Here is the input.
Amino acid sequence: MNEPLTLHSYWRSSAAYRVRIGLNLKGLDYGIAPVHLLQDGGRQHDPDYAAMNPQQLVPTLQHGHRTLLQSLAILEYLDEVFPAPPLLPATARERVRVRALAQLVACDIHPLNNLRVLQYLQREIGIDDTARDGWARHWMQSGLAAMEALLVEDPGTGDFCHGQTPGMADCCLVPQLYNARRFGMDLVSWPTLVRIEQACLALPAFEAARPENQPDAPPA
Amino acid sequence: MNEPLTLHSYWRSSAAYRVRIGLNLKGLDYGIAPVHLLQDGGRQHDPDYAAMNPQQLVPTLQHGHRTLLQSLAILEYLDEVFPAPPLLPATARERVRVRALAQLVACDIHPLNNLRVLQYLQREIGIDDTARDGWARHWMQSGLAAMEALLVEDPGTGDFCHGQTPGMADCCLVPQLYNARRFGMDLVSWPTLVRIEQACLALPAFEAARPENQPDAPPA
Here is the structure.
């Protein structure tokens, strides 16, 4: 399994951010191949990239000759191939909880707010910036409120989304809160989410994965 | 593990449809608790349901006293607790492929087209039925075209999305094609998807899970 790992990433993509955190938590060496989502109409539509990832989305992870798609599928793969430290807990009833928290973000919040969707709303539906931002905040509001409720009421919640070590749900939460701040949201209603985010960002694995610390981030 | 299984389901929800297929493939006995998504403003918003599922979405699976959320997390749980027959293949490199195909549907197509999103587009953004249907078809078009490409080019594709037995990706594909037909899409451009769908629907597990065969489906 000592084959090279290359992540096709964009500094501000929250799906790529999830995978960067996972790779860092596993202590893996990997290269970053930046895919500029806004340059020349979007480099993710370049034929070479589209041949590798027909969805023309980031991230894509190459592991040796294998091409891996979908951020949560990639995190599951990393957890199977590089088991320590684990991103998922030990029992089925714990794992279903962590996966559900991750999917709450990855299925029910983020896909509604990513770049291609916001572009479609503006270019095809014709809404203005205010309505676009209202749309984005609406789905973050409902999803994050549900996530706060699920975390507050469950004794499985610890310093992190599940227990005392970071895992797959934290890989999703932290990028989503970064996005929420980009859209000017006040996170004060979700103290548990913010507390967990701060615990995560104190760790080098999360710090190194932050958008502003990526090689393709613009100068501050 | 002989505790009762109850699925909170809506006949036409494609996320609930996925879990019905998974339960049926495992040969499990389960009860259906219908949640009418359109009645009285949506029964998923009833306080009793919202207390169980703060996202106020279907499906929810109860297994004994445990409450399980998110269709793909539930399918993973079923595969861990009731291993035979498996919904995921044996190796990490096969599993990442199947999970990515499932997530292509569950993260990048379906969340954009589900009821709450279409309602928001009409009620808050103010688009008409034509623009709403165009929106839904746009995301199905791009996602299903990518799925067809991923299936055609990979020797892992068999009678089903992966190999000769149905699995997690098929649990997602079949409900999504049902949705595509609801929106009047012509599926002729995706012969592999349709071929796999037909292989699936020939199986009793898929047949029994079809929307029109649910206890809460309206009379034909």
The CA atoms of residues 118 and 124 of chain B lie 10 Å apart.
